[in-house]
Amino acid sequence: MAKAKNIHVVPRNDGWIIRKEGASRATSVHETQRDAVEAGREIARNQSSELVIHGRDGRIRDRDSYGPDPLPPRDRKVLFPDKSASTSKKAIKDAVSAVARDPKNSSKGPARSSKH
Which H or E run includes 93? Predict the structure, then answer.
């Protein structure tokens, strides 16, 4: 199966165009970047490809992937855990208190042994 070609939203003198990667002709022409991005996003979704949005200076400003991603994002559960899985405030307070009471965690300097 051939890899889907990226869809680019790029500036042009009379507005913004959508162009498939490697194509010499525009797929469509739009007055505003917003209109071009909306149309490009729909094309990228339909073709399971990536939308590449360029700024007025022609440099890449943003990318949105709508196909199978070879480098998917890391597990978001670590960053945004379920509230049901969160630990209660009491459990956290008890754990901190237990660590603070443990003589091995004393902040009065290194522990000394009776042997010299």
Answer: helix 89-101
